[in-house]
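Hi R.,

As promised on Friday, here is the backbone we talked about, encoded as structure tokens. Could you run it through your design pipeline when you get a chance and send me back a sequence?
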């Protein structure tokens, strides 16, 4: 399966999970996830709807932005969604 297809499936899953419009693939603000911070790889995997190993692979590839302070990872949902959208549009 190609990388673009995987990203498309993640975005589709993410949009349906958040109740967003999947027809035009536009992300709108959602009060439950807007600006939310994820503090672990497990939370990232749950957010993306994938396994922890896939979330680790996506993180290591540099496809999504994150901050690491010591052993603590911080992911911001807005930045993740925007980064995946940019990758999907290419």
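Update: got your reply. Pasting your designed sequence below so it's all in one thread:
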């Amino acid at each position: 399966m190609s990388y673009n297809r995987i990203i498309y499936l993640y975005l589709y899953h993410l949009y349906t999970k958040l109740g967003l419009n999947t027809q035009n693939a536009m992300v709108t603000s959602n009060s439950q996830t807007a600006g939310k911070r994820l503090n672990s790889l497990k939370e990232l995997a749950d957010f993306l709807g994938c396994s922890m190993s896939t979330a680790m692979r996506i993180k290591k590839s540099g496809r999504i932005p994150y901050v690491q302070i010591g052993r603590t990872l911080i992911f911001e949902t807005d930045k993740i969604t925007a980064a995946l959208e940019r990758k999907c549009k290419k």
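One thing I noticed while checking it: The chain has four helices and three strands.

Thanks again,
M.
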